Amino acid sequence: MSLSTHLPVIDLDIFLAGPRDSPVVLQECKKAAEALIVYGALVLHDSRVSEQDNSTFLDLLEDYFSQPEADLKKDERPELSYQVGVTLENTEKPKCAVDEPCLRIIERLEISERPLDISAHQPDPKCRFFWKMSEKPPYETQFPGLNSPNVIPQADHLKERWPQTMQNWGNFMKNAVADLADMVAIGLGLPAESFRDAGRYGPHILAPTASDLAKYGEKDTILAGFHSDLNFLTIHGHSRYPGLNIWARNTGKRIPVKIPQGNNLLVQAGKQLEHITGGLIKAGFHEVVVNEQTLAVIEQRKVHFPNRPLIRISSTFFWHLSSDYDLVPITALAQRSQAFKGDGEEETVYPPMKVGEQVSK
């Protein structure tokens, strides 16, 4: 399959303008579904999202992660498996470093297209903050640990602006990705709100990551090792520093991600979407590294913003299906998946399970 190195751009404005049964809307929905089938990722244009809001969010997170480690540790919640609050650097490990199926995917890639070597990679030198954006279910969930209350940093220069900024940016991302879920459902031939309903009470998380480039700014440093996401759809705003690479259909070319300037977001497929489509859409693999472009932006930021910390923030949002939802492949989509199976691609079994079980595993 010949693939472009540019991700398809899906226009959410067309969908929101409606009506949903118009040919132009249906065409854009099919384009969205096809983009995820082929690339596992797409660029989403949404005029409701402003660069200023993204910038305000990035400033807040840079200020937060530039605090001393002792202050950051106050926001750790290891007893809740780090599902809220901060996760400090060298805690998260790329599963692919020890996962045989994942390592075989890397082996099938041409040497020039492989990720940076994670075989001896230590835990990722990135920090993360989990801010829940979920709606409390009207029933007793079997997975209360995935629905814990949020942590608010207590530093004076943060606590007043923290909840509003996090909620504001989180809602932009949540609304955009839920609307895209409707588009993808329609594009796959399903009722429009199939995925939205399945994820109505999901433990959605605004999960910005932070990498200290003053400390980890050498070329070819792995900030986030080769991996895929376990949720349904992941959405990102612009980062100030390049370095994200994705792989098309897990066995294709490495694509350095460039989100076009303007009201654009990056969306990637996760394991829950792969599971429910029976592998028709694959969770896309990706990594974050320090490359030549990252180094160039570091030097530019030193000149133009000398008083700002050199911290790479990724404004990531994980959209999940509801924890108690029965995760079962949709038969018609699982049957279609056979036509997209790549050469040498292993047969994957998607056993029925609750979404909360899948997350816990």
TrEMBL record:
Residue ranges of domain Isopenicillin N synthase-like Fe(2+) 2OG dioxygenase in the record: 222-320
Pfam family, any one: 2OG-FeII_Oxy
InterPro entries assigned: IPNS-like_FE2OG_OXY, IPNS-like_sf
Keyword Metal-binding: yes
MF terms in GO: metal ion binding; oxidoreductase activity
Keyword annotations: Iron, Metal-binding, Oxidoreductase
Homology family: Belongs to the iron/ascorbate-dependent oxidoreductase family.
Protein name as it appears in the record: Isopenicillin N synthase-like Fe(2+) 2OG dioxygenase domain-containing protein
Provenance organism: Laccaria amethystina LaAM-08-1
Lineage: Eukaryota, Fungi, Dikarya, Basidiomycota, Agaricomycotina
